[in-house]
Specification:
There is one protein chain. With 426 residues, this protein is of the alpha/beta class. The chain folds into 2 domains: 264 residues, Spore Coat Polysaccharide Biosynthesis Protein SpsA, Chain A, CATH 3.90.550; 122 residues, UDP N-Acetylglucosamine Acyltransferase, domain 1 (3 Solenoid), CATH 2.160.10.10. The protein has 10 helices and 30 strands. Strands 15, 16, 18, 19, 21, 23, 25, 26, 27, 28 and 30 form an 11-stranded mixed beta sheet that branches. Strands 1, 4, 5, 6, 8, 9, 10, 11 and 12 form a 9-stranded mixed beta sheet that branches. The termini are far apart. Its EC number is 2.7.7.27. InterPro entries: ADP-Glc_PPase, ADP_Glu_pyroP_CS, NTP_transferase_dom, Nucleotide-diphossugar_trans, Trimer_LpxA-like_sf. GO terms for molecular function: ATP binding; glucose-1-phosphate adenylyltransferase activity.
Length: 426
């Protein structure tokens, strides 16, 4: 089994333009969006692969890929004596493929010549914008043992969530017999599958596709030869049901799809819980990222409660409550931060630059003094002045300008925005 597991390549789909995560995706691709104060979204599937001894990975992307390229180049450097790699495959025009990626399957199809340069028996296809911790070894072993053509990771969900997913129905042997995309609520009674007693007790009777697939090499080549199919979830999987042996691999751990600002914000703030559903402190499921060699964070008269503070921060804030503070953050005296994700900065200002900014009345990089910021997401390299008041919440309507956007009540300060002194968003 070990030898066969070495013949797995991972294909991580970088997603489309990421419009639902705007403005975080205005200047970067979705997999490059910072998460948890010090990581990038792409670190999650890559780390899951590395923890599962899968070390040959491709990341497929086409929008704003410069930041992602830099992160992967600076992070995933393996021994020259190993076969490990993380390669970015950006959409490229060729005589056979003159267009951009038209969907998830089309992205894989256009990149097939690169995959076929490598020896593999199984292709593990992953999404680049999901938060979860999974040992893919178990899934691969089940796929091999059951001699499946395709294996799909499935998540038990309740009746409230089921209409948001592609729902699969399995037989007694966990093979998928039918599939429906985002079923209407009245159809759900016909789509129950066999789940564990624990899931039944939680009212989770339906199996949702997680967008995680294993394909046998030959089948993947055959399927990719049909240039009419563009998407796995909408076309390839429904067409394969009933024609191929498709195994459901049930996963019962924490999983969330980082598809919009609300889910992204909640996933980050959820990391501050006493027992977070996504565990960053797990010896067996480490999250790998770029080693930046930053100094320890420094605090002065700051009361911190239920928060994550990343490396290299200089914090003189009055209070930080239930918040994630990213690398190199600087927060001034008297400031209160609550229920926020502050992404931090890519650089430090030196003393001379800070003095020059103060002389000219320009805001410093970071968050100024005597500010109040609540229910907000502050992107990287922002300059927020003194006495700024930002109070996000459901009382705010969706809105966007050159400085910030409001989505689902969450105030998103755009990357590099300069917020003047005494600015108010409430």
């Amino acid at each position: 089994m070990k030898a066969k597991k070495k013949n797995v390549i991972a294909i991580i789909l970088g997603g489309g333009q990421g419009s639902r995560l705007y403005p975080l995706t205005e200047t970067r691709s979705k997999p490059a969006v910072p998460i948890g104060g010090k990581y990038r979204l792409v670190d999650i599937p890559i780390s899951n692969c590395m923890n599962s001894d899968i070390y040959r990975m491709f990341v497929l992307t086409q929008f704003n890929s410069a930041s992602l390229n830099a992160h992967i180049k600076n992070t995933y450097n393996f021994s020259i004596f190993s076969h490990a790699f993380v390669d970015i495959l950006a959409a490229e025009q060729t005589p056979d493929n003159p267009t951009w990626f038209q969907g998830t399957a089309d992205a894989v199809r256009q990149c097939m010549p690169h995959f076929l340069n490598h020896d593999f028996d199984y292709a593990l296809i992953l999404s680049g914008d999901q938060l979860y911790q999974m040992d893919f070894n178990d899934m691969v072993e089940e796929h091999i043992k059951r001699e499946a053509d395709i294996t799909i990771a499935t998540l038990p969900v309740n009746a409230k969530d089921a209409p948001e997913f592609g729902i699969l129905k399995t037989n007694s042997e966990s093979c998928i017999e039918s599939f429906i995309e985002k079923p209407a609520k009245e159809l759900l009674p016909d789509w129950e599958s066999d789940v564990s007693e624990q899931m039944k007790s939680e009212g989770k009777h339906y199996l949702a596709s997680m967008g995680i697939y294993i394909f046998n090499r030959k089948l993947l080549i055959d399927i990719m030869s049909n240039k009419e199919t563009k998407d796995f979830g909408k076309e390839i999987i429904p067409h394969a049901v009933g024609n191929k042996k498709i195994l459901s691999y049930q996963y019962e751990g924490y999983w969330t799809d980082i598809g919009n600002i609300d889910s992204f914000f909640e996933a980050n703030i959820g990391l501050t819980d006493d027992l977070p559903k996504f565990n960053l402190f797990d010896n067996d499921n480490k999250i790998f990222t770029r080693p930046r060699l930053l100094p320890p964070s420094k605090f002065q008269k700051t009361m911190i409660d239920k928060s994550l503070i990343s490396e290299g921060c200089i914090l003189n804030a009055k209070e930080i409550n239930r918040s994630v503070i990213g690398i190199r953050s600087r927060i001034g005296e008297g400031t209160i931060i609550q229920n926020c994700y502050v992404m931090g900065n890519d650089f430090y200002q030196n003393i001379d630059d800070m003095n020059e900014d103060l002389k000219t009345g320009k805001q410093l990089v970071g968050i100024g003094e005597r500010c109040f910021i609540s229910n907000a997401l502050v992107d990287k390299n922002c300059r927020i002045g003194n006495d700024v008041y930002i109070n996000g919440g459901n009382h705010l309507e969706d809105f966007s300008n050159e400085l910030y956007a409001i989505k689902d009540g969450i105030v998103v300060i755009k990357k590099g925005a300069v917020i003047p002194d005494n600015y108010i968003i409430k």
